[in-house]
Amino acid sequence: MRWDAFARDCPRIADLARDRFTEDEVVMLGTLRADGSPRISGNECDLVDGHLFLGMMWESRKALDLRRDARCTVHSVPHTRMNPGGDVKLSGIAYEVADLDVRTAYRDAIRRRIDWAPDEPRFHLFGIDVTRAAFIRFGDDQTAFAWDEGAGFRELRHPDAED
Description:
alpha+beta
């Protein structure tokens, strides 16, 4: 489901993801290569008009991966070994955005954030339809959440929890 629908359905994980993605300004993007092996790439992401967007250089390997197989994972970037902000993981299906009004809104958001925007039409823009989400935090504030369209939101037993 589109970001805005996911955020309404699962605000606990969506709020954590929004905070991390906005603060970090970069995520790790997992895609599948043509031979089926995984590829992990750093990527900026932006939340614009109800979409989770990933902009990419023209014909970059990760963009070509998503054109071939739209399944992907978006993961927050750990800052330290204990990562007190926790890990956010979203799985989903990428969709390429061709609509010029939507692309303009994305470019405007980028320009506000970093005072630069890619030139049309030489960049790829993908939105992510979220199908699964998870959050985990270790240390003193142990937390583990999961969400998917079928089961909804769940608090999970943390793997470090003592019985």
